[in-house]
Design a protein that fits this description.
Distance between the termini: 17 Å
Number of helices: 2
Structural class: mainly alpha
Number of strands: 0
Number of domains: 1
Shape: flat
């Protein structure tokens, strides 16, 4: 189970880093999106 959680976190962090690198998100916004995803605060999380 922890492996799946770690993989999900890794995937989300990688996606957020790509958004920041592409200029689609500011670093603080991407960090907030990751936290929201992990806490289940976003629709579809």
């Amino acid at each position: 189970m922890l492996g799946a959680v770690r993989d999900a976190i890794d995937d989300r962090v990688t996606a957020a880093a790509g958004e920041v690198a592409a200029g689609a998100a500011e670093p603080h916004t991407a960090a907030r999106m990751i936290l929201d995803d992990l806490l289940g605060a976003r629709p579809g999380a």
